[in-house]
Amino acid sequence: MEHHVSIWPILALAFIHFFGNRLRFLAEMPRSVWLSGASGVSVAYVFLHLFPELGQGQEHIESTWWAEEFLSHHVYLMTLIGLMVFYGLERAIISAKNITASDVIDEEQTGWFWLHIGSFALYNALIGYLLFQREEGVMQEMLLFAVAMALHFLVNDIGLQEHHREVYRRKGRWVLVVALLAGWATGLLIEVSETAVVLLMAFVGGGVILNVLKEELPEERESRYWAFVLGAGLYAVILLSL
């Protein structure tokens, strides 16, 4: 199948990791209204656009083996799995961090930093692949996905900088950029079934929900609820009006 390839959306997402460390004002406490608003946009996209799309895709999936057949009829189970996988990784990382020293050398040597970055690298690769898949559809669909993921990446990037500080700026962000580009490039070489694309989208949707909530809910972040609601509401209006 021929694709009309446009490289600028993937470069825009990579740009977030390249230059996110320069947006120091977003990392201040109480939480920036811009980050809470960005989180609201991401959640609105998942609930009002991604989930309805999964429901439509489920009706047209052709299953080829028993597990795929089961999941194709229970596509939202993959969303739950995505949420549980990323929640489990976060809990494992927090537990590992609590029993190690907090300096950069220990962080790298004990491996929990690489586990954390590795999980987000997989996440980025999946999003990069799905962004490429979006390019064979309507431009509007790709733009909605790219905008929501760009804002979501901004939230993730600031959170990872708060967790890992200098080691993230020196190494972690480059790993995420490479993973994102690798996922997009994989789309150029490998075309998977519609079933697999729908299931990947469901898995990523669960990850988005978990990653947004873990950044917004902790009391110490002093998140701006009104900004979250405003971001979600404004993007909901855009999605429902298209």
Task: Describe what you observe in this structure.
The chain is mainly alpha-helical and 242 residues long. It has one domain. 79% of the residues lie in helices and 0% in strands. Helix 7 packs across helix 9 (194-216). The longest helix is centred in the N-terminal third of the chain and has 27 residues, at 33-59. The chain crosses the membrane at residues 6-25, 32-51, 71-89, 110-132, 138-160, 172-190, 196-213, 225-241. This is ZIP Zinc transporter. It comes from Pontibacter arcticus. Keywords: Membrane, Transmembrane, Transmembrane helix.
How is the secondary structure organized here?
Elements lengths: L7 H12 L13 H27 L6 H7 L2 H24 L5 H7 L1 H23 L4 H26 L1 H24 L4 H23 L8 H17 L1
Helix pairs in contact: 1-7, 1-8, 2-7, 2-9, 2-10, 4-6, 4-9, 6-7, 6-8, 6-9, 7-8, 7-9
